[in-house]
Amino acid sequence: MIELLKDLLRWLTSGSQWSGTDGIATRLLEHLQYSLLATLVAAAIALPVGLLIGHTGRGAFLAINLSGFGRALPTVGLVTLVFLASGLSMWPVYISLVALAVPVIVTNTYAGMAAVDPEVGDAARGQGMRWYQVLFQVELPLALPLIMTGLRLACVQVVATATIAAYVSFGGLGRYVFDGLAQRDLVQVLGGAVLVAVLAIALDLALAGVQRLLFRNRPPRAHAH
Question: Transmembrane residues, as ranges (predicted)?
């Protein structure tokens, strides 16, 4: 076990392992590209849906049950299905990652909106604010902490799952996992897994830092929402 850990450390710190088209730096950038693009597309789809459901109260059953759907989604199966339908391209990977992230963002966005005290919205409407003003100037700011939490969770899940790009012969850190399995190279498999885990943790910490900066002056009551 100690020898394996030593080999893993050498693999991770080797200069040659970080350079070239198959190096860790290149694979890391590919993985980030897949993950961030999929998360942004998912957010563009899920945020309006979650905000609409939370504001109107309609479709709450859908929002609540989407979380369970996301956990039950067979990602590799979906990749294979889309791959068979569309051929060799990145579409199967992006569709699968977006489908994974959307339920998390919708659910947390709805939860954030639902946690806003209805009396706050009523007071805003009583002052003559239109529905979109109530939504964007009153409800959305109060719901932002939970919405940000949903984005963090979605991003971490997507980073962990983006290894499937290598399943259909594309890049990313999953390349080390799949190639290592094919070559029976345990060090390479572990190296890929460690890099994915470190990337997921780093992005989560970065987003947590952004969240703290955004809400550092907010009173404790707003965080409770």
Answer: 34-54, 60-84, 91-111, 158-178, 190-210
Residue pair 22/85 in contact by the 8 Å Cβ criterion: no
Below-70 pLDDT ranges, the chain: 63-64, 66-80, 82-88, 217-225
Cβ atoms 54, 113 nearer than 8 A: yes
Quick one: which of 203, 194, 160 has its CA closest to 10?
A: 194
pLDDT at 221: 45
* Percent composition of the chain: helix, strand, coil (DSSP 3-state, to 5): 85, 0, 15
Element (H or E) spanning 185, and its range?
none
What residues does each domain of the chain span?
Answer: 1-214
| Under 8 Å between Cβ of 171 and 165 | yes
